[in-house]
Amino acid sequence: MIDDNLLEKCRNIVRATVSNAVYAVAALTDDELIQVTALAWLGREFSKEWGEAASKMYEKLLLEARAKHDHASIEYLVAKNNVLQAYIGRGLDLLGLDVFDYDKAMRIAQEKSAFSKPPTEGAYQ
Questions:
Q1: Helix 4-15 with 18-26: angle, nearest 10 deg
Q2: Which CA distances in Å does 102 have to 11, 36, 107?
Q3: Among residues 46, 33, 11, 30, which one has the least CA distance to residue 78?
Q4: CA pair distance 3, 68, nearest whole angstrom
Q5: What is the pTM of this model?
Q6: Each residue of 6-20: pLDDT tens digit?
Q7: Which of 62, 77, 94, 101 could potentially form a cystine with 38 if both were Cys, beta carbons 3.0 to 4.6 Å apart?
């Protein structure tokens, strides 16, 4: 299954700009690339009805990705860059893994909410 290190790399790919996502994919090790390929395939074949069967489907796709892996895998993923991030995000979701670090997102939201409050009377004088 996906370890914490790869999960964080996938989160970074999903949240990155398209060009930064391409660089992040290119920096993956061969094993990580195989796992991300399987994850993207899982997201592409997206079906909420899978439920717990998604992890079995991921394992099957992982075997297929290993069998087909070569140096063209990076080019394949990069060619899909306009949908790659969505596929990876869906794949993570299907496996029950959060794309976002919700604690960090809450801290950012709280910081932003401090700026969105109306100014007190006379604040601009």
A1: 150
A2: 12, 22, 9
A3: 33
A4: 22
A5: 0.72
A6: 999 999 998 888 888
A7: 62
